[in-house]
Amino acid sequence: MTVESTGEAASLSHSRRVFAVLSDHRVLVSLAALAVLPWLLPSQALAVNVLIYGVVVMGYNLLFGYTGLLSFGHAAFFGTGAYLTGIAIGRWGLPWFAAVPLAIMASTMLAALIGTISTRTRGIYFSMVTLALAQLVYYVALQASSFTGGENGLRGFTVDRINLLGWQINFLDPVNKYYVLMAFAALALWVQSRILNSPFGAVIEAIRENEQRARACGYDVERCKLIVFMLSGAISAIGGCMSALHLSIVPLDILHYQTSGMIVMMVLLGGARSFFGPFIGAATFLILEDVVSLWTPHWQIVVGAIFVVFVLFLPKGIWGTLLDVLPFARERR
Amino acid sequence: MSTALLQAEGIGRRFGGFTALEGISVSFAKGELTSIIGPNGAGKSTFFNILSGTLSPSMGTLRFKGRELTGLPQHRFVHQGISRSYQITNIFPDLSVHENVRVAAQAMRVSYDIWRRRADLVELSERADAALTSVGLIGKRGEQAKYLAHGQQRALEIAIALVSEPELLLLDEPTAGMGPEETKEMVALLERLAEKRTVLLVEHKMKMVLGLSQRVIVLHHGRLLADGKPEDIRSNSDVRRVYLGQSEGYG
Question: Which residues does chain A have within 8 Å of residue B118's beta carbon, measured at their own beta carbons?
Fold first, then answer.
């Protein structure tokens, strides 16, 4: 085995080695790519949205791409992260640095609840249960309007400056805002990468590959699914916090099942099971939406058609396919 | 019986109105290679699934090293020392051969650690390599499991079951779907495995079973028909009637 692996190492081409190094530092590489995003995309607003949805979809990818659980209710965690951030700042008067952890914790607890119920089911039933429970959260937010603002959304919690150890950052400036939000994305990327590299990361992949075998190996599959459901909800909630801070309003639509559907589309466009795919997927979807809605108000028809083409011909998404095609990237993700 | 490793008492299993197993009482001594045979529908797989925790019995008790196992969830069985393979190849197809075995080894140590690096668990990786060496697959460690030949996948599954260092290894038709060459290799592997641990086989290939096992258990219509040494089974008239008579040339 040593003979073979050293032989393989010797034949590893230069580009392969470079790619391997990049892949080992995927958090930094991803951050570098995100740092130049506002200058690559036509507008800053688009870049911020890619950042936010990228984080949400990345959290979702942990559950869907890496564990193989197709949830149709991730809007619940995205939305709860956003609502709780807004409520904690606007109604309870908490500073943002207390509101954000609180919102993430609340979303994780919600994920524990929804996960406990939904992970008892499998396949299409799992998807339907997550969809139904997430819609329940939507209706709670709609009805509890004295608390959430109901149909009008949650308003009145503008964060205009961020105080970082005495250093005042003007949060209304779009460039500042982008880089402050990128710090949240950095946290999310780092946590996701740690999870994927961890022993638990190996367990969820085993569950995706073969649930029965994973159980026969001695893993408590149900508990592992619940844990990954909570972790996934927590990471998606970070995106929710970012969205609330960015928009200074939380629209009720954030909890709607259409948002959940959009998250699923983004991960499939970008490439499930790839580390950076969620950001590519979010960017592709949002750019398509931007461009096509200039021509026609029925942009969903065009985006939907493109989506169908992707599902049929590029099941690994843009990023996943690219990694497959590039010779030096093959066998790595 | 002080030497009994696994003891099954009055095991029965019903599926709705159908009784698949009834009143099976057997015990397995340490270090023995035992085979379970019987015609199709005899209840072999059901019995096997009960012994490995995949199914829980409707009646009866199961004791392993004197400890009651009845009702434990399947994933706990491995931690007690009972590991199994499946009749239809059951591996992690998209993972590398090495990762297939490494992740199985990991189950005995860490499940929920989300913070350490899995690459730092060097000992698990070494144990995986040792298990791959013992089934002759070490040369394939970097390949994706789905690209292995059928016989190699069967061997890989045995490595997965083996890496937890079980005291009792349950193998469900390890030679299913194999040609004569692959079967010969598998038999050699089984003989090596049985030197060090207790092995329980479900098999279809009669000649192979009778040549390999120290003890044979025959099931028929969900009941225990015979239990004894291979030569006794061969001369048992009940067994000849229900099984051997119609398929002596089989396998």
Answer: 197-199, 201-202
